[in-house]
């Protein structure tokens, strides 16, 4: 089997979960160097999800009290729960096999850089989000702020004022059932809910 940078199979030749992890881990190591991520990859665990229907990848982190993006965390301090850590706690990079199957190489590497921004934020601040700091950092490493959905949502919620789509849902929930009771983050207007399948 052909090799890519001696790190595993070429992207188009990946056939197993283990190969996807090896390829993605090797790419992330190169991206840390190329884009200047402040990330300890040794503190990142890896897994492949076959159940994910929406997220191409995700960084799973422990929930830490009083963590806030923008406030660097001193990992040498003993946390309030009294459990000492050996530096930065580990987090898990969860890769979706279905997304990998739908994405080309460029979109997959953009997705990995998006997730590296999450890892960098977590290792720096103890938490992560998609706020202004995330958007600036994602832009600086040529990563999308939001990774493309690889399956179609069952419901789309839109702002009644500007018409922008503001949320997507893949099953019935309170937000879907009572959409008009919620307000959009863009204009503060009520939401409307539609089923994209009905538009076809």
Question: What does it look like?
Answer:
The chain is an alpha+beta fold and 200 residues long. It has two domains: 11-140, 2-Layer Sandwich (Zincin-like); 155-199, no CATH class. 30% of the residues lie in helices and 15% in strands. The chain is built from five helices and six strands, in the order αβββαααββαβ. It has helices at 17-35, 97-102, 105-125, 132-140, 174-177; strands spanning 44-49, 57-60, 91-96, 155-159, 165-169, 191-194. The protein has a three-stranded mixed sheet with strand order 1-3-2. The chain has a three-stranded antiparallel sheet with strand order 5-4-6, with no helix packed on it. A hairpin with a 5-residue loop joins β4 (155-159) and β5 (165-169). The longest helix has 21 residues, at 105-125. Residues 1-6 have low confidence and may be disordered.
Structural key phrases:
200 residues; alpha+beta; Zincin-like; three-stranded antiparallel β-sheet
